[in-house]
Design brief:
mainly alpha; 434 Repressor (Amino-terminal Domain); two-stranded antiparallel sheet; globular
């Protein structure tokens, strides 16, 4: 299974799914499917996504789960 944090990165960038889809030449629903883990993007699309956000692919996708953002910040969710 491939894990991703595309939704977090997209939201931090202030970008809608539709805007990201336009920048990567895919349907906006594809972005939603990727964010939910229902669709694994091609390597070509993964590179496009990394270029849009100017990050390495490994900042978006991983073969192991990403650490919780709350654990790193010390935030307890309350």
């Amino acid at each position: 299974m491939i894990h991703n944090r595309l939704a977090v990165i997209r939201t931090e960038a202030g970008m809608s799914r539709k805007q990201l889809a336009e920048k990567t030449d895919v349907n906006y629903q594809t972005i939603g499917f990727i964010e939910r883990g229902d669709y694994m993007p091609s390597l070509e699309l993964a590179f496009k996504l990394s270029r849009v956000f100017e990050v390495n692919i490994s900042a978006i996708f991983s073969d192991t789960p990403f650490d919780s953002l709350f654990k790193k910040s010390g935030h307890n969710g309350l």
